[in-house]
Amino acid sequence: MSIRSHLSKLSMGAFALAAVSLAAPAARAAAPESNDPIKIALFDWTSVNLNAKILGGILEKLGYTVEYPTADYLSSLTTGLTNGDLDVGLEFWDTTAGEAMKASDATGQTERLGKLGPKAKEEWWFPEYMKEKCPGLPDWHALLDAKCAAAFSTAETAPKGRYLGGPVTWEGFDDERVEALKLPFTVIHAGTDAAMFAELDSAYQRKAPIMLWIYSPHWAPAKYKGEWVEFPEYTPECYNDPKWGVNPDAKYDCGKPHGEIWKYAWNGMKDKWPVAYKVAKAYTIDTDELNKMSGEVDLDGKTPEDVAAAWIAAHEADWKAWAQ
Amino acid sequence: MTVTASASETRPPVQRWLAVWAIALAAVLLVFLLQDSIPWAVNYPAGAIIPVADWVGALMVWIKSNLSWLTRSITAVLGVPLDFALNLLAKNFRIGHGAEAFTLPRLSWVGVCAVAFLAGHAAGGRKLSLLVGGCFVYIALFGQWTSAMLTLALISIAVPFCIVTGLFAGIWAWRKPWAERLIVSPALDLMQTIPTFAYLIPMLLLFGNSPVSAMIATAIFATPPMVRATMLGLSRVPLEIGEFSDMAGCTARQKLWRVLLPSARPALMVGVNQVIMLALNMVIIASMIGAGGLGYDVLLALRALKVGEAMEAGLAIVALAIALDRLSQAIAHKQAKGHVHQAVSPSLWRRYPTLTLAIAILAATTLLGLFVPAFASVPKAITFTTAPLWKAAVNWVTVNFFDFIEAFRVALILNVLNPLRAFCEGFPWLGAVFLLGLAGYQLSGLRLAALVAVLTAFCAITGLWEKTMATVYLCGISAFIACLIGIPIGLMAARSDRFEKIVTPIIDTLQVLPSFCFIIPVVMLFRVGDVTAMIATIAFAVVPAIRYTNHGIRQVPPALIEAGKVSGCTPRQTFFRVQLPLALPEIMLGVNQTILMALAMVIICAMVGTRDLGQEVFIALSKADPGRGIVAGLAIAFIGIVADRLFGAWTAKARARLG
Prior knowledge:
The complex is a heterodimer. Chain A is α/β, with parallel strands linked by helices. Chain A has helices spanning 2-23, 26-29, 46-61, 73-76, 80-83, 94-107, 146-151, 174-180, 193-206, 220-223, 236-240, 269-272, 274-282, 287-298, 304-314, 316-323; strands at residues 38-39, 66-67, 88-93, 110-127, 161-165, 185-189, 212-216, 226-228, 259-266.
């Protein structure tokens, strides 16, 4: 019974395969060029995994085999992606991975596939209720006021304000910024962003003062009401030339750079799976759509697979055009 | 007795040692006060830093370009059984490609749960059957099945791999004392003390971003207990048994495999049990380099601040650990009782009734799964979640107790932690090398002194002195408090069976529950920084202090207690004058383990913003800099080895004095 049922299923599968390959139009006969699995990296935040599942879903519809290995964000650029252990990584942020991407480009074994679409924004951020205690916000000049800084202070930092920065591995230059703008604040580095958002959640529930580094696209700006501090607009000169900006003796006297989010691939992908490469290169996504989908996963409890499948179904014309 | 007597004659007596220590401390204080004129003795000069990290980095590049073919073939070979296990338990077998691929189903969850019940019954009767089966059903009902099976698949391949490697390494070390002294022993020390994060980057470069890397990383961490258990087991086999096998005409090979190893089986099974537990400890880290499974669920949930989901995934790891631990202990216990030889039945069914039944159930349920979806994967309707409850509990505590906790935290930081930290970080490196060397000399002799001094100096000359001392400060105070809490609890547990029954499951959970799960809720209450790190470290490191103290008191021979009672001791006197001194060596061993456990937490603590060697390892990880990571990892390992050796020498001396 068992063997027969398997056999019949197998033969049905084989028949289906044959039928499909006969019926498929010429354009699709090219893909898949290789049956080796295409490995799309999963990292540990929602939006990148959504993007991975969307691209992977499209490639599967085109006949490719796709695997989703879990990987470490920054080091994957100079390890897995350089030798084909990972074939595609979908979100590398200018704002946090600038140096790692430079190192990756220098190896010559990876390829920048272009921009994902959404813009990365990150800056000092405060919950809305803090405006009462520090009315000048979001203009950064308000932070210079000692009373305002004290409103953000804790016992160890008083009378200075406390600013919770990202992990030291992120390229934030917050210590330098505080120095250059003469802000009465102490920078405390969180070890991971999970720890950072744990503090935010705790403070927000108690309506307690907090000033921290928040980035977007992320679920936090959607969940918590608040604003980004408005520093002098970033320019490359600000980070390179001391003379630029309000403080003529220091660099970093401006806000954080807004940046692109880049897609990366192993540079062997182009030859091994030309059509999949074309799709990965053409793949972009709308910022609002991505934020909405991240929220559906993180706040409404849907699975990334379901959300990705919905996107794929809604944008069939788009990705079919990418594969041409 | 004569040896110790003659040794103490050649060494200065106690008073002279006091004087020596007074002079040494004065000298260090002088160096500290004169730091303006001799700054190089306090802070190691930046110009003289030896670039060990660069050398290691260059070596890694060379290995990568010249030996990749070898490491990659290892990956390919190990990948075969691992993929099979992953597909069998979790992922389904896919035959063919693309959307039309045909899939052979994985084992049905109903079948696996049934087999868990059966295995428990075969190993330890009804009670164990309910426990082991219950753990698996728990995992299924909480919706963690697929992830748990990914983890189980990784473990089920990694553990036999560790056991075989460990067994052979142990036999080799047991046969060749020089190999034990020069190669195996130092290697084991390093494997157990270098944090895994430190060698993740080399792992990724050499073995790729795949479950195989995760498995090898797990094996490096989990194999040492097996090697140690093998060496211990073989050396404890009574001499007569070995001699008897010689007389019976065994060849060397027969003697080892047919006589010595079976006799050493109880010790070997302890090793197997430890391998399983340590392998489960690795699941989170393994998930960062391609393993997936429960560890990845914990990470992902925490990134999205889903405290409850992370806790549930963590508790699923605990359930898996409890099931495997109790099962392997029961098997060890059963085998230790020995076999009664029976006539071997010719049919497989008669010889292995349980095994045959298990296979039949698996086959039947898996086939059923082809037609009834409820058998193939756990139906959503019967799963449930407690995640909102966890989250609500954390929120309630946050809202209601934060101010009280904050006052406590600030007092602790300002009055205790900050001064201590400043003291440690300002301590002259030359002074530390000198004082630790002196302690080594007093406790054991020149060899220990040289070892301790060289290892301490390594931390300074690689330019990591300040971070090393920051690590010493945090681990030191955490281990101290863990002992203050753990030893009294252990003492109470030893005196009351009921209390022990309550404590045991708690410490089991603390040991296996990934620290990540509770470190984030702690951040919500204590903010990022040293206090959070300290609490997480204490929670993890308190376990050996409790366990060894309890064990130490309980193993005092009843005859000696009787003797105490007969000579008229009150219960109080019996406890303080008889039991406690006799248990002291064991308790000291617990303290030693507590220190090592605290060091193992250094990396995790870096995730909540400590500024020590753990942070250094993290920076290296994100910059994919293998040299920097390994050097920082070695520095952590050396702190552990220095503490371990000094403590060991001190305990040995104390034991010799007790007689």
